[in-house]
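## tool: complex_structure
## caller: assistant
## args:
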Amino acid sequence: MELKDLYREIVNEHNLHPAHKGELEHPSMILNGVNPSCGDDIYLQLQLDDGGVVTDGKFNGSGCAISQASADMMLDVIIGKPKEEALKLAETFMGMVRSTVDPAEIEALEEAAALESIAHMPARVKCATLGWKTMQRMLRDGETS
Amino acid sequence: MFDVNAICQDFPILREHPDYIYFDNAATSQRPQAVLDAVTDFYQKTNANPLRGLYEWSVGATEAYEQARHTAASFVNAKEDAEIIFVRNATEALNLVAYSYAMEQVGEGDEIVLTVLEHHSNLLPWQMVADRKHAKLIFVEPQADGTVTEEMLAAVITDRTKILAMTMVSNVLGRVTPAEKAAALIHAKGGVLVLDGAQGVPHQAVDVQKLDCDFLAFSGHKMLGPMGIGALYARRELLEGMQPFLRGGEMIEYVKRTSATYAELPHKFEAGTVNAADAVGMAAGIRYLAQVGFEAIEAQEQKLVKILLDGMRKIPHVHVYGPAEAALHSGIVTFNIEGCHPHDISTVLDNEHIAVRAGHHCAQPLMEYMQEKCSMEFRATARASVYFYNTEEEARRFVEAMGKVRKWLGFGE
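## result:
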């Protein structure tokens, strides 16, 4: 997708009107993720049920359109999914933006798959992965703040 | 007669890409053919290890290298060539001063004065000194447009101040600092003035004797030279009293199993095989600048900055930082656009073949300060920085592109 179209069709909408920006009332986990070199800064909050399913999620913070839109799209995809599946999607996303994953797998990312062309903009990869990496640190490594 | 189109023809990268607008000159400049040729010529005509060999090529390499030192010394009007130490860049020069001078001269309770404008390269070395020597860092807070006044400096310089470390020009706001006045103030209290000239030396005529600074650090790559070469100017008596920064080959007189005596200046500070080819390239860059002349360079930069400032100020939602007058910007125009993160601005402009820097500009404390003083939305800005080879047409195209950014990022109109 052309960069201009990527912004126009996907990124701008999620950046300017994010569905999942805000605060959860009773989050199970909260974690701060930052890109010090960019100043991207997000607080990711997830709520998990006893079965390990992500039942809700929100993010807060500030940063570039790509970091914010990507976090919003990520929550669209992972809410309602078990922890293991969310982590598998994170692997797929990381692989996608580094062009190291089978294109067939990318479909599972739903709308977040639109960020595939970020792979051609190495300087923006870490913007796109901030939300996903923060989620990995929470669900895989058990980090919480 | 200054002719920007003729100048562009001297720069292969500009000649080959006439539609690309390179406005990131404060990060690194482009190089004219003369610089590229000087480096190639060194390797093709007289390549050997300088200062060591007793044969023709090595002697030729030594001569070329020392001639480059002479060119750099004359350029900043040092009293003698030995007051110029070749280093990798301004960062290394400042670290040299921190390790070899400050670590010896600064003690517990002493103070090092800096400004909030400093690039990390003129901040982190002093943090290290203060930390290890239990000294104190004192910060001068500039006005919102980056202005540092003589009074601000006078208010914090005391008998305890051992070092005033200050940039000549803010790499974010372009504002020139009062270096000459600073020298008088710090000398009256017995301290030394360390100037970070990375952003100043490429854009204004510098005379270290007139400035009366004790140390001046600058990089070759921001003034037409190759990457990986820069210089430290320091007064001879200070260098004489300092310990070497790095130790090894060619910086010695006699070496015994457990001790050594060091070479004369400047070699005492240039351990190991030197970067002779790039020093020769840097000298070619200096000669090019001298040929164009700083009067013409400053005039062109001001002309371009004026177009940028006048144009950008008319565009709604664009906020330009720094002084009101174009003459005070040293070619740097830092800005933000409401609702748009600087990284997105840079991506949009990149798509229009325009190169600008976006982010914290290696000046995080200044970003934090500006966020508060200038009510910035993000702790980051976008920065356009011009040099004398940029054209008025480029500046006008830049202003035009600026008008498209918000639309690109989803804001109506």
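## assistant note: Chain B touches chain A through 20 residues (CB under 8 Å). Chain B has a mean pLDDT of 97. Handing back to user.
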